[in-house]
Amino acid sequence: MSKPKVAVVGAGQVGGSTAQSLIQKELADVVLIDVVPGLPQGKALDLSQAAAVEGWDCKVTGSNDYKDLAGAAIVVVTAGIARKPGMSRDDLLNTNAKIVGEACESIVKHAPGAIVVVVTNPLDVMTALAHKVTGFGDQRVFGMAGVLDQGRMRCFLAEALGVSVKDVVTLVLGSHGDSMVPVASGCNVAGVSVLDLMPRDRYEKIAQRTRDGGAEIVQLLKQGSAFYAPAASIVQMVASVLRDEGRVLPCCVRLNGQYGLRDVFIGVPAKLGARGVEQIIELHLSNDDLAALQKSAAHVKEQVSKLALS
Ligand code: TXD
């Protein structure tokens, strides 16, 4: 039986792991696209052989030609450079804007009906750029970051409290950067508020570690940034679209008045189904959390204005 096609632009660390996880779950046939000759072809061949060993019934191909985007239901954009120790995500702005802009022009040309999931950093700005360049509209262009940030926080809280990650619920809004907004009232263990389980200062340290979660890994790896958890997060979002699951996941989406914000891409919970972003969920936030989200959005707007998009 033929499977939907997912194109992953950028066959680097995140792209390769994403392709692996997509075929492992038998969600889609995958095409990896990269500018480096041989890289996507080599990874695709290796992954095809892994699939043969494991019995995963999916095809993986690699290409240096954007024409091979044709027929993709979803295009995941991971192309660009990653951070080095000491760099912020914003330091990647100009280099990655050029790469993501080009990729999006090719998506319009070769996969005009696709849903676009943006991953490249700085995430919120690149998602705004992809929205502008593709013109695909608010439903079909969104970014991955919140699933990862919430996962990181879930990992830290489960470890601190000595409980299963399965029972920890977290809520992280805002930009995928220093102004990220972990929300204490949205964090609980099997329904019990996290602030009833640990002192506030301990919670605050975990919230800060979540904000710094990417940088902690960059420091350790010394070359490149995180990729296993990012890939797992991408695949959760892609699965919700391909299987029309309607999962409510934190996504970088364009707001249209929700949270008092307009025409800005920022992380909030959204329902993901076959049409992409099917609903934006507006939470009742405390004044402090709302102010933090608005501040985060102001930062994204400022960064977007540096791109001179309009
Ligand atoms: O939460 C999130 N959104 C993120 C984002 C989590 C992890 C990583 N995040 C960002 O994704 C990271 O900061 C980077 O901007 C991207 C990709 O990270 P990755 O770790 O995969 O970087 P690599 O290994 O350097 O891979 C990037 C690939 C590399 O193979 C390049 O040759 C390729 O992108 N590249 C291109 N492919 C296609 N087309 C063009 N134009 C192109 N330019 C570079």
Q: What is the distance, rounded to the nearest whole angstrom, between the alpha carbons of the first and last residues?
A: 44 Å
Q: Which cofactor or ligand species appear?
A: 1,4,5,6-tetrahydronicotinamide adenine dinucleotide
CATH class of the largest domain: Alpha Beta
- SS summary, helix count: 9
CATH topology of the largest domain: L-2-Hydroxyisocaproate Dehydrogenase, Chain A, domain 2
Q: What is the CATH architecture assignment of the largest domain?
A: Alpha-Beta Complex
Query: What is the averaged pLDDT score?
Result: 96
Oligomer: single chain
Characterize the overall form. Answer: globular
Label the structural class: alpha/beta
What ranges have pLDDT less than 50 throughout 5 or more consecutive residues?
Answer: none
Secondary-structure element series: EHEHEEHEHEHEEEEEHHHEEEH
Domains, number: 2
**Gyration radius over CA:** 19 Å
Question: What percentage of residues falls in helices of 4 or more residues?
Answer: 40-55%
In CATH terms, the superfamily of the largest domain is Lactate dehydrogenase/glycoside hydrolase, family 4, C-terminal
Question: What's the number of extended β-strand segments?
Answer: 14
Strand order of the largest sheet: 3-2-1-4-5-6
- Major sheet: size, sense and barrel closure? 6 strands, parallel
